[in-house]
């Protein structure tokens, strides 16, 4: 296997520009060899208007990273796997659980890597939180994930279309941390979902889980943004702030490990390791909770939302 892996990026939107392109440029593992974009362009990189044309023209691109919204992602991922390429998926890994199971089966049958990424699991405080909670009894946990959709998803109507997941688009990041750090599984017991009258997905949600675990997601918060998780145990309390990047245990700040990279550099380092060792990494636990909330949640309607 070559020292540098050739990769293509599909969907040159906000997250591709903010995170994927810089992370790839800074990594010795990767060469960004192609891009697929309906209207965008990546400077210095051959850009194709559709994935089939890229796959046909670039047989040496062994890995494709998909930065599309969840709904169009399955068709593209399946085409890449069918063409013998390893695939990396942005979060949430698909529009439905079943389509991700189908991709898993395709990848396994072809001996290809499928990596369903959860960038928040790579945040600085997450590994430390997981290590401290291992073997402990969690008596209570609460997530507060409140942000301004107009700031983080400017004009992205897809988040309010079916499959866009609404406030679960950021909320699933909190659930990816929760499912990583808790020493045992929890399951959703009830939920309230707030749908703007003019939109197909919720703008806020309150979730209750087994084991006194709860979550408050809201996309209408202006000013200070809040991405916190508080966990109580008989041995003390833990608090993750700033999306998992700041860890406090019993009130004292715990420094992240020096070796921890930024979230996206860490995702690409993991993808390189998975490809080189012939493994996949697909954990759907965060998305199961979202699907359960959509199944069990009580729907209430709230004021119209427009960007
Ligand atoms: P975005 O800015 O709307 O970009 C998505 C890109 O996908 C579009 O620019 C478009 O690129 C392409 N695309 C192809 N088919 C599309 C369709 N049917 N509808 C819309 N776009 C389509 O979205 P994003 O914020 O980058 O989010 C993409 C994924 O990254 C989501 O799953 C999101 O959860 C995840 N993510 C986002 C953030 C964030 O801060 N925004 C952070 C972490 C993860 P072309 O014009 O190049 O074809």
TrEMBL record:
Which molecular function term from Gene Ontology is one that the record holds? nucleotide binding
Tell me which domain of life the UniProt entry assigns to the organism this sequence originates from: Bacteria
Pfam name, any one = GFO_IDH_MocA
Boundaries of each Gfo/Idh/MocA-like oxidoreductase N-terminal domain copy? Answer: 5-115
Family matches, as PANTHER family: BCDNA.GH03377, DEHYDROGENASE
> What name does this protein carry?
D-galactose 1-dehydrogenase
Source organism of this protein record: Gemmobacter aquatilis
